[in-house]
Input
Amino acid sequence: MPEGVQAVEHSVESDDVVGADAPTAGRASWRRRLQFWRSPTDQPAWARPALLVVAALCALSYAWNINNTPLEPFYGSAARSMSESWHNFIFGAVDPWGTVSVDKLPGALWVQALSLRIFGFHVWAIVLPQVIEGTLTVLVLYRVVRRVANPLAGLIAALVMASSPIVILLDHGNISDSLLILLLVLAADAATRAYLTGRLRSLVWAGVLVGFAFQTKMLQAWLVLPPLYLAYFVAAPAASWLRRLGHVLLSAVAVVVVSLSWMTSVSLVPSADRPYVDGSCNNSVFSQVFDYNGLSRLGPGLGAQHGCHPASPELIALARSAARTGYNTGAIGPAADRLLHGVFGHDDAWLLLPTIVALAALLIVQRKRPRTDAIRAAVLLWSTWLLILFGFFSAGIFINSYYVAALVPAMAALLGLGGALAWERRRVRRVRVVVAATAAATVTVTIALVPGYAGVRNWVVAFAVAAGLLGVGVLLASLRRGHDSVWAVTVGPVLAVIAMLMGTAWASGVVVSQGLGSFNSPYEPAGLNQETLKSVTDFNLDVPLLAQFVSVLPSSSAADVFETSQAAGFDILATGREFLPVGGFTGVVPAPTVSQFERLVAQGRISRATVTTQPLTRSPVLLWVMDHCRRVEGIADPGPPPHTNTVYQCTPQDAP
Output
């Protein structure tokens, strides 16, 4: 029986053992918990300490300068608004009044809002959940890989996950993908346990976890269902394929029930008692999820839905401006090589070549294993995960660069399994040849990925080439018959691994040292990085100014009215006060309506509105403001050239 499978069976059995001598077992259990750094008896002594070191370093990189993290203000405003009332919390309101929801399901924002309720408003309180989620993902990935292989494979996977620049960028921010990835890796762990034991409850639990992940990123969570179910259907010990298929169908029912539970509950609430559902033109959370965040990613978008008004010229110009600067990675069109160069390549491509080599080696070695072989099932799961997500991200009309962080668990798991296999067989001549060739090719990829304008390019190239030459040289020299020294079987492979990790490790160092956030990538042009740093500086400077501005206003009135909740997000995040968003995130959804806005004006709850007047806004509400309210001379809020925002003063008498 393969060593990896023996380790799996021992791990599974040990999880279910109940000691017969309860007092003695209890005392031993408490002693083990107090000595948490010690490895379990079925693992090498170095395994647990090494894992804890990796987890501590990754948590440090995620939390580095945590109180100066560049926040995404739209999601930040939603988290702060949701922390102020349970009504806003339940429905995912983006503004304190609860007029409009966030344009996605609010699962990840629930965690951030709870953190704000516990600790009060601080930037670090918003980021802390992502730091914890990212660190837990590393620990869970170690466990799921170790289940089918050994601690070395798990540790390699954890190290790759922790050192990935795009994962560090993601977890050093307030984007929902951190929780998504944690829940999906937990689902992979449950599915792995299911195909090892054949237990239906483990597979159903995997489905429940995918349903929870749906609450954070909607349809993207379902993309991992084929890998999870394929691995179970192929490898579960149940003899009958009909029985295995029945288990898969029951798990799929759990996925659907959990995924749609919150959406269904919200749909049953009268529209007058909840925020307008952003991302829809008919106030439907199902339209938000399956159209705006689903089909529109591959088609014309929200503006094509019936019930929305056309986008204003300012919004169109802002989107085009973002695309020209490169900040909007949706400007990089769909292509087979989309993720292999430029912004996306700097995020995820450093270890893609070694991943492919590891996958090929694993398939060759495992090709004659029995159907229930654990490692082959793991390879099937993670390779299908990688293939489906890579294809989806390559073909999608619009993706942000942080989306590709979802590829990293699959890459890390395959590298862990392949790396452990290569280490076990490092005395085999052809294995040394493959490792040497892979190291040389990966160094070449590293040189190609680091752009010429990057100030550290010469250092990266020098260190990668030096480590690569040493590693390849030692490995090739060891091919002489009988040459099996410590240099051949230890120093050479270690140097080759260092050479392969040089690109991703250096990119991660750049990310941490420059304090970049979720919407950045390593080696961006200096101007874009300065934008990130400036956003942090501006936020810290504007918070006291905005606090002074809202302090003289009645708590029952809005401080201002802005076109789009994106524009209002910064001020809501900074103050926790109402800055009424008009038109939702894109500015085109019918919320609030003109009649609703008129009532707010008549009640004295709206006194100031900032309107895009050059070029003219197309929002019905803001056009009403221009027709009924008084333009305030001498107060202007300039927008991005050539746009101009004009301030209007509204009084109850202005409402019909």
